[in-house]
Amino acid sequence: MTNYDEIPSLLTQLEAEFNFEFPVAKEVTEEVKEDEVSVAVDSEEVIAPPLSASPVREEFIEANTKNSTSWITRLSDRYFRSIDPSPAIVIIGSFLAFVLGALHSIAPGHGKSIMAVLALAERGRRKEIYRLGITMGITHTLGVFILGSFFILGSNFIPPDIIPILGIISGTLIIAIGAFYLARFIKHARKHRLGHEHHHHHDEAVSGRRIALLGVVGGMVPTPTALTVLVGTAALGSAWYGVLLVAFYGVGMTLVLIFAGRLIENLYRFAESVVDSRGGVRIMVQRAPAVAASAQILAGVFLVAISYGAII
């Protein structure tokens, strides 16, 4: 497992075939040096120069080092795959894991759509956004630890396509939650058009159960990269280092999700403050919950589609 770009396929791979190709040795025309080694094989004598003096071997290693498939693979080879990591490696690796977790949250995904639903459809405040971000981060990190432990122990209870299965389950729940909020918005808008009295519960806190549900659904699919790092470090005898890397990965992801939620909340509150002066802003504020719910439905559909494609 050296190519982190192909992690999803590696996790479901049951068999592997390895083809080793070595460069053709150059013809030796010079006389054999005194430190060359003679080996008897089937009554025939094979003369080979010391490995440390072989230019062919050095060229082979240098070529394979340059042909690394991606920057993340080269990064992982240096800082995430150490048998006995030094303090400097631990510090740098932990920082890089934090950055990778933050980049994972910045990329398109369903976590930010769930934050948008909380901030717009539920009108969640700062405390609720913090709780949701922490819940998603803890759920995601625990998922990596649990699945990684099963893989490390060689358990047969975990199917090889467990991550796509979790993706389908999570995506289906995300679609259901988004549909619930969209239906609630449509029902509320219909009552408003008919002139029924309606109330906005600006100060009503979101229930802990609802936040827990959103957090668990949003974080139940572990990242294959984090899972591979955990299993790989354990195989090298440094499981504690893998736990540390996954923890920092989860912290980076959590902080970015909270930042996204606070940003959406502040923009929404600002838009509300200028509703009376600008008619276009009023329409945006009124339809923001529906847009957030629709975005969550689309994110769930995308998650189900890519997860199902990984199984078939």
Structural notes for this entry:
The protein is mostly helical. It is built from 11 helices and 2 strands; from the N terminus they run H-E-E-H-H-H-H-H-H-H-H-H-H. Strand 1 and strand 2 (44-48) form a beta hairpin. Helix 5 packs parallel to helix 7 and helix 5 packs parallel to helix 10. The longest helix is centred in the C-terminal third of the chain and has 35 residues, at 239-273. Residues 36-68 have low confidence and may be disordered.
Low-confidence stretches: 36-68
The succession of helices and strands, N to C, reads HEEHHHHHHHHHH
Counted up, domains total 2
What is the helix fraction of residues, given as a range? 55-70%
The biggest sheet, with number of strands, parallel, antiparallel or mixed sense and barrel status, is:
2 strands, antiparallel
- The mean pLDDT is 76
Continuous helix count? 11
Q: Note the overall shape.
A: elongated
Compute the separation of the termini in Å. 22 Å
Structural class: mainly alpha
Classify the beta-strand content into a percent band.
under 5%
Taking Cα atoms only, what radius of gyration do you get, to the nearest Å? 27 Å
Can you describe this structure in just a few lines?
With 312 residues, the chain is mainly alpha-helical. It is built from 11 helices and 2 strands, in the order H-E-E-H-H-H-H-H-H-H-H-H-H. The protein is elongated.
